[in-house]
Amino acid sequence: MRQLINPKTFGRPSIGLALFGCTNRPFYHICIFPDRSLGRRYEENIIEQVGTFDPLPNAKNEKLVSMNIGRMKYWIGERNAQISVPVLELLGLSGLFPIHPKTYVRAKEQRETLAQQVAALQAATSTPSEETEKTPES
Amino acid sequence: MFLNRCFLSPASSNSSCLNAVSLPLFISSRNIGRRTPKPGKPPILPPAKKVLYKVVHPPWMKPEDVKELLWRRHAYNNAVVSLRKVFKREIEAKEAAGLGIEALRVREKDELNELILENERRNQEATLKRERQEKEEYEKIKAEFLGEIGKKLSAEAENAKEKTIEVKKMIEISQTFVTKDNLDDKLKEALEKPVVFDYCIDLNGNKFFDPVPMKYVEGTPTRQKARVFDRSLVQPRNTETPPPQPASATSM
């Protein structure tokens, strides 16, 4: 049998992203769940909704996040809720928490990929110009 | 396994202890025959082949990166722990200062009671006002009705007076009326005493009949009945009172 729920660690609420939306259009609600071991997050499992996160950027290239800071403080401080990594990252970006290490890792990776893309673009633009220079010379 | 009943099947239990905490915001309205399925697989079923021998190999990282991430993680976790304590203290301070939920509930309850009392006061004032207005209107309407009644009664009395006078007059007049009973007598009387209105009268009061009325017609009556010439040019004749004889006539 698969691993079942451990009753010793059971009962601690968890703050996480619950996926809603339609096909090719995800949308996340930041919700409080009763326990993180209760399988996929689904509607009837939610205790309270505490914010939203839209992963697709809007017309101004912004990804919008909303958070009910008061309630989040209650759940985090008073009820000692576990927080999932994406929510921790969002909290870090918002300023309530320090920046998550994964954000630094992600930023570093993105910087590297961006540098690689820029280098590739430059290489692509420079090689045709070199060829055009060579041909008139010859 | 007692936990299973309470937590593992919140979808099936409609009034579970979890939902009693706060209502879910996005209630999926699955109607008859379309229940939401339980999430995940039941534990008795074997896991899928895709998942069976899945081993997650973390990607290789440089040692300096690992060290950096390690101290970052330590610092972060410490920060989170301290933040939890900070939030807890904040909430306790709020509660102590009277800004917490319990204090809010108490204030709301007090406000509700006050509002109810004020509503009661307003209702009483409104009832008093209503009573006064209704009384005034009642008095007004009563006076109107009484006036109208008085008018009607007086009109009726006047009418009755007038009608009695009329009726008495008619009674008096009706003494001479012709009815079926006295028809024969009246006819006989009329035939015996014919009244002729076919006369002309002068300022002295002399009546002139032409032709002279006769009760029993003698001879054949003339065919011509209209006036052909002016009788005033002729010596008056056929009067009720005979005209005074002139002196010449007596001397003759």
From TrEMBL, chain A:
GO terms for biological process: mitochondrial translation. Coiled coil: none annotated. Keywords: Mitochondrion, Ribonucleoprotein, Ribosomal protein. It holds the Pfam family Ribosomal_S16. One of its GO terms (molecular function) is structural constituent of ribosome. It comes from the Eukaryota. InterPro entries: Ribosomal_bS16, Ribosomal_bS16_dom_sf. It is found in: Mitochondrion. GO terms for cellular component: mitochondrial inner membrane; mitochondrial small ribosomal subunit. Belongs to the bacterial ribosomal protein bS16 family. This is Small ribosomal subunit protein bS16m. It comes from Panagrolaimus superbus. The lineage of its organism: Eukaryota, Metazoa, Ecdysozoa, Nematoda, Chromadorea.
UniProtKB/TrEMBL annotation, chain B:
Belongs to the mitochondrion-specific ribosomal protein mS26 family. One of its GO terms (cellular component) is mitochondrial small ribosomal subunit. The keyword Cytoplasm does not apply. This is Small ribosomal subunit protein mS26. It is found in: Mitochondrion. The keyword NADP does not apply. InterPro entries: Ribosomal_mS26 (IPR026140).
